[in-house]
Specification:
Layout: E1 11-17, H1 32-45, E2 49-53, H2 66-82, E3 88-92, H3 96-105, E4 109-112, H4 122-129, E5 133-136, H5 158-175, E6 183-186, H6 195-203, H7 205-208, E7 252-253, H8 259-265, H9 274-286, E8 291-294, H10 297-311
Parallel strand pairs: 1-2, 1-8, 2-3, 3-4, 4-5, 5-6, 7-8
């Protein structure tokens, strides 16, 4: 079960980018044969889920269309299933048509970095297909999100803003008919968040799905009204007026090799950020995340298994 109260072992999602321009491994797996071979390696390393993407969502990435994205990922999914590989497959897309084609080809999970706001047909599709849905917090799109990291409307509190805006997308999903039990939350590390904000989100993961949160220590005016009527109540908790409670929703954290890690380690090559990623995986486990999405599955398995025994036993 994906519950921080009962889950004993972190679930591993291995990243398979079938793209020429992903920030970390673009071009490495851009043929079906290479992609399937890497999927097999991720499984041998211990991945529980393979997350297949055909479009880079790194900051500043140029968007491609649904047809081009489908051409990159659907043949890979088909080949994996034709070879009898029985692993859960997630498709990283914000296009409903790509998601539908991927599900038809054998995918199990939709991983949507826009939380369903980019394509109005996505949430109805997820509702019809009754598949697990990873709903991520983001603002804008990959070409604009780096400039949309101002959370002053939430008194500068990035966690409060992430909670409030995620709750709006969860409400939209529920209203579209997506069952609550099929929704997995992703706080969107690196998406519409600058370096320090990413560390704050990692530090405060338990608050993402808490019933109430307190004002952040660095808030300039914790008693002032903010978006959605946020203010500090009599017991010191923020009155957020969330669109829906987020209590007990499972959480996925995707911090692997990202730029904010390189900023503090001095590692400019994303492939050199394995040890920095390990620290973020430990933080995710400590924070109760159900799933971690990583490039380096073999290394992160060891990190999380030890962390599981420290924090989940």
């Amino acid at each position: 079960t994906l519950s921080p109260d009962t889950q004993k072992d972190t679930i591993f999602m291995g990243i398979l980018n079938c793209t020429p321009d992903s920030f970390s491994d673009g071009g490495s797996y851009d043929t079906v044969d290479k992609a399937v071979q890497h999927a097999q390696q991720l499984i041998r390393d211990g991945a529980d889920i393979i997350d297949i993407g055909g479009q880079s969502t790194r900051p500043g990435a140029t968007q491609i269309g649904a047809a081009a994205e489908a051409e990159r990922i659907v043949p890979v999914i088909k080949r994996i299933r034709e070879q009898g590989i029985d692993v859960s497959i997630s498709v990283d897309t914000f296009y409903a048509d790509v998601a539908a084609a991927a599900l038809d080809a054998g995918a199990d999970i939709i991983n949507d970095v826009t939380g369903g706001y980019f394509d109005p047909q996505m949430l109805p599709l997820v509702a019809r297909r009754q598949c697990p849905y990873i709903l991520m917090h983001m603002r804008g799109d990959p070409s604009t999100m780096a400039k949309l990291n101002d959370y002053s409307e939430y008194d500068g509190d990035v966690m409060r803003g992430t909670r409030f805006e995620l709750a709006q997308r969860v409400r939209a999903a529920l209203d579209a008919g997506v069952p609550r039990w099929n929704i997995i939350l992703d706080p969107g590390i690196g998406f519409a968040k600058e370096g320090g904000q990413n560390f704050e989100v990692l530090r405060r993961i338990p608050e993402l799905t808490a019933q109430h949160i307190r004002a952040a220590p660095n808030s300039s005016d914790p008693t002032a009204a903010a978006a959605g009527g946020s203010r500090e109540g009599e017991e010191g908790f923020v009155d957020e007026d969330l669109a829906v409670e987020l209590v007990n929703y499972p959480v996925l954290v995707g911090s692997s090799r990202k730029r904010f890690i390189g900023a503090v380690t001095g590692k400019t090559d994303a492939r050199d950020r394995v040890w920095g990623t390990a620290a973020t995986v430990t933080a995710a486990v400590q924070g109760g995340a159900a799933i971690v999405r990583v490039h380096d599955v073999a290394e992160m398995i060891d990190v999380a298994r030890v962390s599981d025994h420290i924090y989940r036993r």
